[in-house]
Amino acid sequence: METELIEFNGWTLRTKASATPNPKLLVLIHGWTGDENSMWVFARKLAPQYWMLAPRAPYHAEPSGFSWRPPQPELFGRPSLEALRPSVGALIQLIDEYAASVKVDARQFDAVGFSQGGAVVNALGALYPQRVRKMGVLAGFVPYQMETILDAKPLVGKNIFVAHGTQDEMVTIKRAYASMDLLKQAGATVTYFEDQVGHKMSANGVKALKEYLED
Fold it and tell me: Distance between CA 78 and CA 199 in Å, rounded?
């Protein structure tokens, strides 16, 4: 897969152009300690009509990599909606500016995130439901304190793909079930895939994601 590493408006991005007329935009959102390279293992088999954009998160993580929220040791691995909100707003601005620069329609886009990136996808869909078309949440969760905006049912009409491992010790399967309940309460339907793996995606999970993203 040919990708390009670029600097754009203060962001570090890895992108993949599409030669397909009128491509859809797919935003790939890495997890905690990841970077702009992390999500391509999931993207290799996705449809060629996607123009793909994988940004590096704006905050440094410890001991290495990057994060979508500022360092908060007392909330290790458990970001709140308010901690993620600045990054979510910045992502929308980045998507608009980048899409305009390459002349790709981003009035609606698809988003896939892993772990903390999955929490960002959930926040994107809830805060900007008119912008996000399809949502893939891989080993992810609903951020804390998001229940208040979910009460308004912002996800009505959305079908969200959720994949999780039964052996995941970082984001437990119990938390995944609770997150799916919240998404359903917010009006979404959920396409769920489960496999006997840890905090990662199985080959069958990637296949299920590909099937979900295909129209």
Answer: 15
